[in-house]
Amino acid sequence: MVHFTEGVLVACDVPTKQFILKLDADLKPRSFVLFDLDDNHIFVEGWAVETIRNNLEELYKENHFTFIA
């Protein structure tokens, strides 16, 4: 019998993947990671894409520095 799961394949670097896994653990009752495939790929629920994107944007804003000459 064939089983299928609808979701989104996320390709990213290792630190970003770790951030996504941490975010998933923090939102445990609404866990969105379906499969942890390899070092650079995760299969997630479709509804979580916007949540992941927003949290990554916040992280990038916190870690962005502007050089003032």
Helix segment count? 2
| Unreliable residue runs | none
Number of strands: 3
Domain module count: 1
Strand content: 15-25%
Oligomer: single chain
Question: Can you tell me the overall shape?
Answer: elongated
Quote the CATH topology: Alpha-Beta Plaits
Largest sheet: 3 strands, antiparallel
Highest CATH level, the class: Alpha Beta
The Rg value, from CA coordinates, equals 14 Å
Main location: nucleus
Protein name: General transcription and DNA repair factor IIH subunit TFB5
Subcellular location: Nucleus
GO biological process, one term: transcription initiation at RNA polymerase II promoter
What does this structure look like?
With 69 residues, this protein is an alpha+beta fold. It has helices spanning 14-26, 49-62, and strands at residues 8-11, 33-38, 41-44. The protein has a single domain, classed as 2-Layer Sandwich (Alpha-Beta Plaits), CATH 3.30.70.1220. The protein is built from two helices and three strands; from the N terminus they run βαββα. It has a three-stranded antiparallel sheet with strand order 1-3-2, with helices on one face. The chain is elongated, with a radius of gyration of 14 Å. InterPro entries: TFB5-like_sf, TFIIH_TTDA/Tfb5.
